[in-house]
Design a protein that fits this description.
314 residues; six-stranded mixed β-sheet; alpha+beta
């Protein structure tokens, strides 16, 4: 089959990898400058920081088999087994070079077309089952579609295709996250192993140097959904300054030598669809997948993409 995958985040990459390995012709479209979605890593001077997903765990044999292969390839390593008082002895995995290195690894050899904004999807006629129309006017034909972007965006794309998603699915809302990236002139006050999950203002605080990612001290701080929602429309500089003030306990005696504010509009689905993917009854060559299916974490997104690929060829 000729398969078009909309969204080159983890779910889209895993689906495309599985379909390509199965002998299908796959093209991925993504509006971003590089594949990965929230598998995002940024350089600020000499610092390297993960600013989306920070780590992942393994709960299933399916995902575990992939992680074992990544470890064997020297791509993935065990960061720690929990953070502070909430440490549970369960492995947390990180990626050498940052989380985006995993996306680049999965994208190797795939036809990934970045800076490609999908404007609409349409059901074709005859042997042209699907049309993917881009905002610059080009049209791509495919036998099947896998759509992995956030569900509100997926719903908008499927309206033009005449496909009706269940209301409970397309109404899935997402928490927003305002993220502060801060490069320091000396080590931070974040305790070993360099991560914190139980702060009332932040869902996660990461010391990228302690994590083994950055050669210089650098923090990533994710504001909690309530704070992020309340300050989402703040002036960019004001929101950054407010986050810097909240971050003081973790900056400690260090000085911030550079900082950036990042916004994640669709950071975390507020609820998960119970199945790993969704297929329209009247359009069996269309699959919808992503981190809103069977769990809004790295493993959930990966397994959703794999499930979409398996369902498509079943």
């Amino acid at each position: 089959m000729r398969v078009a995958v909309v969204g080159a985040g983890l779910a889209g990459l895993m689906a495309a990898r599985a379909l390509t390995d199965g002998g299908h012709q796959v093209v991925l479209f993504d509006k971003g400058r590089s594949p990965g979605g929230r598998l995002a890593t940024r350089r600020i001077g000499d610092a390297r920081l993960d600013h989306g997903a920070q780590f992942f765990t393994v709960r299933s044999d399916t995902f575990g088999a992939h992680v074992d292969a990544w470890i064997a390839d020297g791509l993935v390593y065990e960061w720690c087994r929990g953070f502070g008082a909430s440490a549970d002895g369960y492995p947390r995995y990180a990626v050498h070079g940052g989380m985006n290195a995993l996306a680049k690894h999965l994208a190797r050899g795939l036809d990934v077309r970045c800076n490609s904004l999908v404007f609409s999807l349409h059901q074709g006629t005859g042997d042209q089952r699907w049309e993917v129309r881009l905002d610059e006017g080009s049209v791509h034909h495919a036998d099947a579609l896998v759509v992995t972007c956030p569900l509100p965006q997926t719903f908008s794309l499927l309206v033009s295709a005449g496909v009706v998603m269940p209301e409970e699915l397309w109404r899935t809302d997402y928490d927003r996250t305002l993220s502060l990236l801060a490069v320091l002139d000396r080590p931070s006050a974040v305790r070993a192993p360099g991560g914190l999950q139980d702060d009332p203002q932040f869902t996660f605080v990461a010391d990228n140097q302690a994590k083994g990612l950055s050669t210089v001290p650098a923090l990533t701080l994710h504001a909690n959904p309530e704070w992020s929602r309340a300050h989402w429309d703040d002036d960019h500089a004001e929101a950054e300054a407010a986050l810097i003030e909240l971050a003081r306990p973790y900056v400690g005696d260090a000085a911030i030598v550079a900082s950036q504010l990042k916004r994640w509009r669709f950071a975390t689905p507020q609820k998960a669809w119970p199945e790993p993917c969704w297929r329209a009854d009247d359009a069996p060559t269309l699959l919808v997948a992503g981190d809103a299916f069977a769990g809004p974490k790295v493993e959930g997104a990966a397994c959703s993409g794999l499930a979409a690929a398996a369902t498509l060829v079943s």
